[in-house]
Amino acid sequence: MLLPATFNSRINRQESRTGSLPGILLYLLVSLLVSFLSSCGNNSVQTPPPVGDFSLSLSAAEIDTTLGSTSPSIVLSVTTHDGFTGSVTVTVSGLPSGATTQPPTPFSINAGANQSLSISIPASAKIGVYSVKAAASYASLAHSQTFSLAVNPGITPTISTADDGSLFVLQTQTASDTVRVGLSQSWGGAIIEVSLNGVDYVNNDDPGRQIQTSLWDANASYSPLWGYNPIESGDHFYQGSPVLASTLLADSLYTKTQPIQWAPENFGGGPGSPVLGDAYIEKWISIVPGFNRVFKVHYKITHFGTDLHADAFQEAPVMYVNPNVPDFFYYGGAAPWTNGTLSQHTMSFDCCDMLATPENWGAYVDNTQTGIAVYTPQQFPNSKGFNAWSTLQFTPMCPYTWEPGGVLEFDTFVLVGKVDEMRAAIYALHSQQTTPSTLPPMGSPDEPASGDVVSGTVLVDGWAWALPGMANVQVFVDGSVVGTANYGINRPDLPVAFPGAPADVGYQYDLDTTAFPNGSHDIVVKATDNNNHVATFATIHVTISN
What we know:
six-stranded mixed β-sheet; 4 domains
C-alpha cells in the first residue's frame, strides 16, 4: 500500500525537528500499519501447514449397479494420525461417461469423519467394470483409494422352460438376445448347450464332455486301469447316467441323477451293463435377476455309500467348450476384485495347465471376445485346463473328501457374452456372496510312501492348504489318532505347482513305529480348517519292521 506524498513529507519534517531516533520509531510504526492494511486487503484463505497425517479408507472394495440407476453407497472414512485436524478435499475419478456422484465431486470430509458416496449411472453408459479412484488431499498431504464399480444392464427378460423330448430347456428372451441352456435327458441331465443367439459354446462329443460334475478319489488308481469316477453324463461306452427325477417350473429346471462309473469294465460292468455310482447329483438352474445372460446352477451332491473316497480335486463342475471359442481369459494378478488387467492364455495340448485364478472364474471367447464363462465362488484360487483339439477344458480347483453320507452343496454361475460384460456380472455376483466356502482343505501326504517298509522314528510329512486357515493336522494309525503334526513348514514347491498358493502350508510329524507291532499298518492324515471342514488324505500303507 502506498502512502500519500503529503504524509511522507510530514514524516520528513518531523525527523528534521526531533532527531533520528523518534523518526525511526515513527517510521517503523507506519510500516507495521502499512503491512496490516495490506494483509486486510488480501481475501484468500491460507491452508495452515499440516500437523500430523491422515489415512483414507473405504467400506468396500467393489460395488455394483445397473444402467439408469443409482449405486449402493460406499463409505469413505478419514482417520487422523499424530494430531491431524484438517478437512480433506476428496475428488472422485474413473467414472463411466456421464456418471455423477452424490455428494458432487469434489467434496470435503473432516478429520475423523465419514462420508457416504453414491454414483448415478446414465442409461447410455457402457457395461463393464470401472476402477474408480477417490483421492483425498490437504495442503501437501495426499492419499487415495480405488474401488471397482461393476455396471450391468439390469434387464428383465422373458423366461420360459420346455421339454422337447430330448432336452430340458431354460431360455431367456429380450429384444436383442435369445439365451438357452439345454440339459440332455439321455445323458444324466448334463448341460450340453449354452447358446447366445443360436451360437452354442458347449462341447458334446462324448459323455465325458459338457458342463457337468464327476467324483474322484485320491485312494483310487487311474493307471493302467481307470478307478472310481462316477460321471454325471455317462460312461465311455456312451451309456448315459439315469435321470431319476426332473421338474420344470416357469423359470427354473431341476434334475436328480445317479452318475455311472466312467469305466464300468473295472467294476464288473461293460457295454450294455453300466455301473451305478454311490452318489446322487441334484441341480437347480435359474436366471439371476437382472441378468438375461447369467444362469445360476446350484448343485447338491450326496455320497450315500458307506465307504470313504479320499480328498481329491473334484470336477465341480468341469466345462468343455467348442473350438469356436479358443481364447482363454481370466484374472491372474495379485490384486483380485480391483478390475486389474485380464490375462490371456493359450491352453496346451497336454493335461493340464495350472493357472492362478484368484477371481474364481475363467472364460473361453472368440476373436470378438464373445463366449462363455464359469464362475465358482467357493473354489480355491487356481484352475486347470487343456486343449484336446476338438474341445477345450476348464476346471475350477475344488477339493473334497467323500465321507460316508457326505453332502457337498455349492453354486456355480454360467455366463455368456462379451468378456468385459461377463466380468462385470461376476463382480456383481461376488459382491453379493456372504456364504463361506464349503470346501475342506486340499493337500497330500508325501512321506512315507505307500509300500514302504519303515522302522524306528519315521517322518510323516506333506502339505495342507485351507482357505479359512488351518485348525490342526492330525496323524492316524489304523484308525486311531496318534498325534498332531507341526504345521506351517515352508514348502517353496507349492507356489510352483499351484501359482499364487501360499508356501507355509507344510506339515511334519515324527512317528515312533516301535509303539506298534511289526506288520502292515495304515497311516492317514486328516486336516481340519478353521470352519471345521475336514479333509482325509490318501491312505499310506506301510510295513513296520523293527
